[in-house]
């Protein structure tokens, strides 16, 4: 699925672990950010970055640097038939800019279909009502993107 960026095994870092990884749920208004721990055992929410802030890619670069991120995982919204539409095109355009800002960090795309729905269900099960989810739903979706990537990698 990932044709624009190298696979982790192609990276020249020499470090076999792709963790910690940064999960990104890109949206036109907000970017949900989550990270794995250094062992890849668990993903946790980090921050929601507004796309209209001064420099959202700069903020993501800052987060990646502070957390010593080794891998970027970007959610790619595929259609139910597995094809890419205009939303996926927007995500790829954003990811290209993000990759240019952090060329030393390998990037992968993960199908993000249903991640927001799954995140919303989990938040509801944890007692969060729909109106209470707005501030954290993007972070929770980024956690689901990372969980899916870790599951696929194992």
From TrEMBL:
<dbReference type="InterPro" id="IPR012337">
    <property type="entry name" value="RNaseH-like_sf"/>
</dbReference>
<feature type="domain" description="YqgF/RNase H-like">
    <location>
        <begin position="19"/>
        <end position="119"/>
    </location>
</feature>
<comment type="function">
    <text>Could be a nuclease involved in processing of the 5'-end of pre-16S rRNA.</text>
</comment>
<keyword id="KW-0963">Cytoplasm</keyword>
<dbReference type="InterPro" id="IPR005227">
    <property type="entry name" value="YqgF"/>
</dbReference>
<dbReference type="Pfam" id="PF03652">
    <property type="entry name" value="RuvX"/>
</dbReference>
<keyword id="KW-0690">Ribosome biogenesis</keyword>
<keyword id="KW-0540">Nuclease</keyword>
<protein>
    <recommendedName>
        <fullName>Putative pre-16S rRNA nuclease</fullName>
        <ecNumber>3.1.-.-</ecNumber>
    </recommendedName>
</protein>
<keyword id="KW-0378">Hydrolase</keyword>
<dbReference type="InterPro" id="IPR006641">
    <property type="entry name" value="YqgF/RNaseH-like_dom"/>
</dbReference>
<dbReference type="InterPro" id="IPR037027">
    <property type="entry name" value="YqgF/RNaseH-like_dom_sf"/>
</dbReference>
<comment type="similarity">
    <text>Belongs to the YqgF HJR family.</text>
</comment>
């Amino acid at each position: 699925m990932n044709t624009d960026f190298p696979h982790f095994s192609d990276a020249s870092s020499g470090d076999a672990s792709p963790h910690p990884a940064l999960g990104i749920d890109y949206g036109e208004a907000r970017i949900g950010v989550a990270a794995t721990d250094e062992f890849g055992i668990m993903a946790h929410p980090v921050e929601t970055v507004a796309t209209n802030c001064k420099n959202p890619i700069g903020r993501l670069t800052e987060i990646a640097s502070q957390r010593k991120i080794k891998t970027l995982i970007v959610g790619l919204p595929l259609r139910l038939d597995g094809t890419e539409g205009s939303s996926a095109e927007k995500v790829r355009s954003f990811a290209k800019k993000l990759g240019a800002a952090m060329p030393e960090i390998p990037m992968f795309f993960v199908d993000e279909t249903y991640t927001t729905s799954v995140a919303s269900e989990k938040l509801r099960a944890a007692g969060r009502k729909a109106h209470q989810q707005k501030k954290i739903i993007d972070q929770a979706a980024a956690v689901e993107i990372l969980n899916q990537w870790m599951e696929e990698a194992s």
